[in-house]
Amino acid sequence: MPAFAWKGKGRTGDAQEGVIVADSKDSAIKMLQRNGISVSNINAQAAKAKGGFGKVKPKTLAIFTRQFSVMIDAGLPLVQCLEILGAQQPDKNFKAMIDEIRQDVERGATLQAALSKHPKAFNDLYVNMVGAGEVGGILDVILQRLSTYIEKAVKLTGKVKGAMTYPIAVISIAAIVVYIIMVKVIPVFSSIYEDAGGLPASTKLCVNISNVLLNYGHWVALGIFGLGVLYRQYYKTQAGKLQIDAIYLKLPVLGDILLKVGVARFCRTLGTLVSSGVPILEGMDITARTAGNLVIQNAILTCRDAVERGRSIAAPLAETGVFPPMVTQMVGVGEATGALDAMLSKVADFYDDEVDNAVAALTSMMEPLIIALLGGVIGFIVVSMYMPIFNMGSVMGD
After folding, report:
1. Which among 5, 94, 101, 6 has a CA at the least distance from the CA of 46?
2. For 175-208, what is each residue's pLDDT tens digit?
3. What is the pTM of this model?
């Protein structure tokens, strides 16, 4: 997503500047206007102009934010907090970034403006919440909420990655073993059966696959690599990302987990933003961009447009057909009681537990399936290659 460097005036007439990430220039202007900023100048910015720093690991950012909140709560000046945090930061990339942020603050920039220059590390959610904390005088509380949010997001992502690590590792090792059997073992048998006629169909299949891998293995590998490149390029397009994300959500078992992860992220993000004083429309904009799935993102943006026209949140959410009824009902109750942020937090906690249970069920289900699949493949190869010998023994016995 492109970044735009902007200059303008805030609600109180003070000069402000920063960098904002948005789909287009018009979207960036609208987002700034919703934050009460009158834009005087805005231009697309190259990636290198953002400070030239790389991404920061979520765990590193969570620790930084937690320590930052404790220092602010203890009454330390903002510049001194940044100086201490920069001095003790082991990540050289992040250390240089913190030092640049400190220098910007020393020159009179707000913390929000200083952070917005580094969108690779501080996303819109982080920057806008910090801005709300500065305006409301509750920066320590906001930073504490941010650290909790990041920690839970890291934990949620780790659960899904952990569930996929085991099957991917086992399947990869199995593929290597099968490849070695095909190119090293089967050629020995095929040389024995070279003059034999009437080989079983399964034996012929294994021998043919072995010959293909021996003679055209590099082309097979190149073809697989090419498919991977095509997939990545197609996924970068808007239509491709939408189609693939929709397919992901429809996958058996895994699709249900991905949907629950998306719902948990939506509720956690929007609840954190609302409780921090970020306007609901701006909060939904940010939540959509951090959804992680284009289908869910489009559903949130559709709901946001309906809210902008004066509707409630719950009804448009239900009409999208993406969010489960329990979510829309809880959101409706939160709106009616004026406790939307608390209700969203409870829904997020519920779906975090649901992801835990789903991941555990997926792991326990996949282990026997993988073992059965590998046993079946290896068994098929072994039986296929020894079947002619068994047939010869039965003929000789007769």
Report:
1. 5
2. 888 888 888 888 887 777 766 666 788 888 888 8
3. 0.68
